[in-house]
Design a protein that fits this description.
alpha+beta; PmbA/TldD fold; 2 domains; 6-stranded antiparallel beta sheet; 5-stranded mixed β-barrel; 9 helices
Length: 448
């Protein structure tokens, strides 16, 4: 059985093989994954899935040329063949003067921080089946629910190891547990669907199946008999179910790759007012049991909490080493990578701090507007900031949430949306990207 120590030794051995074979520099990443999932529908078991995988990614440098390769065959002879293939690819690759490992002096040393990401739970299929059945039963018990798309429960454990040829080697384990339910309400052409889900690092932190199922059923029923919405400019409130998507758009716009390619609507915004004053957005990779917490970044650099937006001002880009060199800056510990392919940049547990205004007050001030609980499509232009997405939710009339709405489009530009954004006080750390309810004035809503 692969342990954390053995995983670290394996990537160190792979890097050593690469340097012995002629690589000027190299790094290797190993992910050992074990997952179990169960799905049910209409009170009966529908599927049980178990998967185990172990994959290694190797990146080699020959001068300013580099290549990446991945393999799931980790026997010694196969690793030597993978190294040989990677070196041949690198020698044929174009030169990139920005390519290379992270600065040696910036590498993380010592033991990784204790983030309590692994609960060691060995979950049995019977346990997952019972959770899913209870969740679906609770959802179907809500008056008005007429059918079920099913419920699912899963558990996963992964070991992640990284080593570089210039002095870094680290590994850690993470677990995750999830539960979801999806049901339909109403009859015939008037049916509506909705769902609820929850994920947690520790099994003990997972919401009860009853709570998840009931929430799914109540959400589906609440969407019945949607009203029509007149088109026009009006305030839009993003529910916490979807408000974190705004942080995703910000993250994409301030990643080093977008900045170096000059494909970001925030290209020249560093050190300027991007959000309304009073808004703070932080990244906290050290959040204990956080869904996106990590011990080190994808290049072996230490990670630390930092302010991305402070009082509305953009404080930093998210930089891996290559982008940092190109911009004449220092890497920020945000390098992100998969097993194969290039390294990019991403935040960890990104969140917008809660505002001072209660959600009820934020909504109560709106004469006519929309509360959005679902977003549809990917209509965001990262170069211009133009934003247009399908949506569903509820009408806000004279300060009250009234009738459901669906098949509407909300549009604006992220530059204006960020500056006209007001956060409520209802922040809840439930997802990887978290934000409270967000009111954005002056958006265009297309309905009738």
């Amino acid at each position: 059985m692969l342990t954390i120590d053995k995983a670290r030794e394996r990537v160190q051995d792979t890097v050593a093989r690469a340097t012995r074979a002629g690589a000027d520099a190299a790094d290797a990443m190993l992910v050992r994954n074990r997952s179990l999932s169960v799905s049910v529908r209409m009170g009966a078991l529908e599927d049980v899935g178990r998967s185990e995988s172990e994959e290694l990614g190797l990146r080699v440098f020959v001068g300013n040329r580099s290549a990446s390769i991945s393999t799931s065959d980790l026997l010694p002879d196969a690793l030597d063949e993978a190294v040989d293939r990677a070196l041949k690819m690198a020698r044929e690759a174009p030169e990139d003067r920005w390519a290379g490992l992270a600065p040696r002096e910036r590498l993380m040393h010592g033991e990784p921080p204790l983030l309590d990401l692994d609960d060691g739970a060995e979950v049995e299929p019977e346990t997952l089946k019972a959770r899913a059945l209870i969740a679906e039963e609770a959802a179907r018990a809500v008056p008005g629910v007429s059918n079920s798309e099913g419920a699912g429960a899963g558990a996963n454990r992964a070991i992640i190891a990284l080593a570089t040829s210039h002095g870094f080697a680290g590994a850690y384990a993470v677990t995750s547990h999830g539960l979801s339910a999806s049901v339909l309400a109403g009859e015939g052409g008037g049916m509506e669907r909705d769902h609820a889900h929850h994920s947690a690092r520790h099994e003990s932190m997972l919401e009860t199946p009853e709570a998840i199922g009931s929430r799914a059923g109540e959400r589906a029923v609440s969407r019945l008999n949607p009203a029509r919405v007149p088109s026009g400019a009006m305030p839009v409130v993003f529910d916490p179910r979807v408000s974190g998507s705004m942080l995703g758009h910000l993250m994409a716009a301030i990643s080093g790759g977008a900045i170096t390619r000059k494909t970001s609507f925030l290209q020249d915004a560093l050190g300027t007012q991007v959000f309304a004053r009073g808004i703070t957005i932080r990244d906290d990779p050290h959040r204990p049991r956080g869904l996106r917490s990590r011990a080190f970044d994808g290049e072996g650099l230490p990670v630390q909490p930092m302010a991305i937006i402070e009082d509305g001002m953009l404080e930093t880009w998210l930089l891996d080493s290559a982008a940092a060199r190109q911009l004449g800056l220092s890497p920020t510990g945000h390098a992100a990578r998969g097993i194969g392919g290039n390294i990019g940049a991403s935040a960890a547990n990104l969140y917008m701090a809660a505002g001072a205004t209660p959600r009820a007050t934020l909504i109560g001030e709106i004469e006519e507007g929309v509360l959005v609980t679902e977003l549809i499509g990917q209509g965001v232009n990262g170069v211009t900031g133009d934003y247009s997405r399908g949506a569903a939710g509820f009408l806000i009339e004279k300060g009250e949430i009234t009738r459901p709405v669906s098949e509407i489009t909300i549009a604006g530009n992220l530059i204006d949306m960020f500056r006209n954004m007001t956060p409520a006080s209802d922040l809840d750390f439930r997802y990887g990207l978290n934000a409270p309810s967000l009111r954005v004035d002056g958006m265009t809503v297309a309905g009738d």
